[in-house]
Amino acid sequence: MVKATNLGFPYVGAQRELKKLVESYWSGKITEADLKAGYLKIQEAHWKVQQEKGVEHIPSGEFTLYDRVLDTAQQFGVIPQRYQHLPALDQFFAMGRGLQRPATETTPKVDVPAMEMKKWFDTNYHFIVPELENDQTFTLQAPRAVEQFKAAKALNIHTRPVLVGPVSFLYLGKPAKGVADFDTLSLLPKLLPQYIELLKQLKEAGADWVQIDEPALIYDLAAPVKQAFATAYQSLQAAATGVKILVAAYFGRIESNAEALLPHVDGIHLDLVRAPQELDAIIPLLTNGQVLSAGVVDGRNIWINNLAKSIELVEKAVQALGQDRVFVAPSCSLAHSPFSTAFETKIKAANPELYSWLSYSVEKCGEIATIAKAVTQGREAVQTELQANAAAIESRRTSPQTVNPQVRDRVAQVPAEAWKRPSAFPVRREAQVKKLNLPLFPTTTIGSFPQTKEIRVARQKHNKGELSDADYDAFIKEQMKYMVQQQEELDLDVLVHGEPERNDMVEHFGHLLHGYDFTQNGWVVSYGSRCVKPPVIFGDVSRRCPMTIEEIKYAQSLTKRPMKGMLTGPVTMMKWSFVRDDIPADQLCAQIGLALRDEVVDLEAAGIPCIQVDEPAIREGLPIRRADWDAYLEWSVGCFRLSTSGVRDETQIHTHMCYSDFNDIFDAIAAMDADVITIENSKSDEKLLNIFETKQYTNEIGPGLYDIHSPRVPSVEEMKQRFADMLKYIPTHLLWANPDCGLKSRQWPETKAALANMVEVAKFFRAQQ
């Protein structure tokens, strides 16, 4: 029989129970024992719901309290020296988010920063980058996969353990700070014995299949990396651990990367949503009973599956391989999808047509089971499901909700001059220096200030109708006034209004645009316990009305210092939404770019001298394969320029990007032609700065002075050293001082302390000139 399988499940819980549990532990409200009891309960519920939906291979071992790659690092002993003195759980969280704790009578002071965080391929999920020594030793300690498999077994649920693969783990890692650069894959012979031991332990526990995730297979790989895959799986096969190995690749096409490892595994998973053409290429390579896991249900989006098309694809595989050699699966782990549409009562009531197009993780498990049943027993066995699905697919294709002819006409008629600023940067800078009159090393923030409990409660009351529009507006103005006062007291140079009215940098604007809708429970993890609830783009996009003008005008009226308008860029508005998949991405991005252009022009007319259009997703959206880069960069950079090019020379355009490798697309970043760019730098060991010197970047830049994702407050001396390092690469007249990212997730005491230190550092270096 064709098996219904799953690669992973949204570990945060049905309604973010894990987030609340972990944050209660961090705040000292619950004990470690309480935390364990709570997460075991969540795991149990997840396994049971998948079982009830008909999934036969239920994943275990992929559940994490912070990040799976961080789990892997700790369980194989890849623990930097600065964390080794800490107890296991404190150590784990400190590696992920840093730890700053004063000394007590019984415990010493702790002050350690977090490890580097990067985007997980082209998703908006962030992983913790392993730090590897060139003489690294590996030891297997408390493997999560074994623990979770046994926990499921105790419930009479037989699961398929999931591991991060050895090659991807090393390939995604980096040499530890202070270590001379070396090939991290050279450590593979030392790591493999620990994987062999882990597979043996899983076999002893009762596992028959083990899923080993090797997403690095979708990269453009050099011959030595391909050979590393072959070496790794040949070694695992030779060890005869007794378990069957399914290697899973996702988020793109593997092309020839898997050919060398295929003879040494029992099955391979393909993302047939992203790369359906790979089915024909891989089938002839599967011999000796090897299994194909067909990823035909989109694990990264929220739209219903076209069951008829998926069944045809799986039937094609079955005709070539036979039923026993085909698994039906999502394209990738469902951790990138929300939990269940059962909680979306508002959309169901207000827009039942849109609701009929939605499918979250629980529903996707049902789709997988339906496809497997249809192929195994015939389509008549699921006729009712197929008829309902076909009706919903046709409804979405033909619905007037999805098409606005005026919007499409405007995109088609954009004049050539609208795609770039009228003057070159040197001309613009001269006008901006004259207008703004900023000191050397201007200080600013990225936009948001702490979203306090008071702000969240007021927003909830307003949304429920318990707080009138007038009272809510007055409350927001008081918050903005406080935030502006704090910035003036800190002596920042370019201020922001603090964004107290915004729940999310994408969702807030989505409410003010046609073509968007919003979920009640569409939560997905961004990093650690941080969850985001992306809006849904289901139709053509245009601006409903001016979106930020009243707030920013009020904030500017409170100060004589320049105020910075804050918008989210077109690529990020698209990439950080659950995006429609029924029109080309470049057309949708241009629609959003034009809506933002209208807002940028209105901000300038309102007297706002600086306008920041954030594009943190532009690198994240880069196609995995280099052959696809040029087309993407042309339209994504073009849409940013479309949104920002309607203003005069003296209006300063800022943009912000974070936690990405920019070196390989530096020319495209420069082509965005922002007057000021702010980037993450505090976790990146200066590697992002080298390229700005090498390429002689001429626009202004603010590399982040400290990490806002940690509650830790870096000292003045620490920031001085980091700023001095920046001056090695960035010309004095181009350098700004700012945090890594927005301050929304922080508390006020740590925010003011860190910013005060930052301003002191900028003033110190001004005095040296």
Automatic annotation (TrEMBL):
Pathway: Amino-acid biosynthesis; L-methionine biosynthesis via de novo pathway; L-methionine from L-homocysteine (MetE route): step 1/1. The keyword Transport does not apply. InterPro entries: Cbl-indep_Met_Synth_N, Cobalamin-indep_Met_synthase, Met_Synth_C/arc, UROD/MetE-like_sf. Keywords: Amino-acid biosynthesis, Metal-binding, Methionine biosynthesis, Methyltransferase, Transferase, Zinc. Residues 441-763 form the Cobalamin-independent methionine synthase MetE C-terminal/archaeal domain. Zn(2+) 1 binds at residues 656, 680, 741. Residues 4-319 form the Cobalamin-independent methionine synthase MetE N-terminal domain. Zn(2+) 2 binds at residue 658. 5-methyltetrahydropteroyltri-L-glutamate binds at residues 19, 124, 530-531, 576. L-homocysteine binds at residues 446-448, 614. L-methionine binds at residues 446-448, 499, 614. The active site is at 709 (proton donor). It comes from the Eukaryota. PANTHER family: 5-METHYLTETRAHYDROPTEROYLTRIGLUTAMATE--HOMOCYSTEINE METHYLTRANSFERASE (PTHR30519). This is 5-methyltetrahydropteroyltriglutamate--homocysteine S-methyltransferase. It comes from Hesseltinella vesiculosa. The lineage of its organism: Eukaryota, Fungi, Fungi incertae sedis, Mucoromycota, Mucoromycotina.
